[in-house]
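input
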Amino acid sequence: MILSMTGFGKSIAAIPNKKITVEIKSLNSKQLDITSRVPAAFREKELSFRNMIAARLERGKVDFQIYAESIGAEPTVSLNVPLMASYKGQVEEMARQLGIAWPDDWYSVLLRFPETIKSELPAAISEEDANVLFDAVSNAIEALMQFREKEGRKLYEFFTKKIDNIRELLTAVEPYEKERVNKIRARIMDNLSKLDGVAFDKNRLEQEMIFYIEKLDVNEEKQRLAQHLNYFMETMESGSGQGKKLGFISQEMGREINTLGSKSNHAEMQKIVVKMKDELEQIKEQVLNVM
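output
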């Protein structure tokens, strides 16, 4: 069964004094593109997290985030008041020397200076806490994969419906084929009858007419399109990781439909071809979401 590249996974875990939330989102992309935001205390494990994601997700634009929230009595951050007092004194001295006014909003000015906020998160986490964190990341990945499977089933149903619609339209072409040939033959004969004083070899005319009508024959295009429709369904059922292949098949389907339209030379057949193109465009749009 095919998988979607769209997905979301979330997992929550706890380590001493902290609640850890892991979130992973993915969208379609030709390659694997991971963007991560990890607290400084967990930064040394970031590469391992990215490797875990790459091993399971394979493709997609992935947004990976870890949030750490204090659940203890003490805050995880605090203001560095002595340093802020030093900054304030320097700003006041600078204002006196330059003859300019002091800031109207000291809070916003002082908080912009570096290291005015002190983090109480440890520089590194223990091995036991790291294992809890890895489990949380693994659970979030698994939740995302389940989301991808659910979306993949929806895509499968969508593609199946669209392929069936194209098959029905292909069948609808058949009644017009014989009618089209008769109309072409009648139009040519009618035009010839209007040419006064022009003699022509009827046998040669018949040969040329047969040659012309054979050039407009669409049986090969219909057979190849039917084969592509079957191949598309077989590929979907062969497993995940078939997105690029399905894209190639849909391109081949488009070629046959375009040729069918250029050869149709019949108003009703051309209307059917337009409907086929509409169904195929919807397939092409959604194929971009397939793993």
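quick obs: The mean pLDDT is 85.
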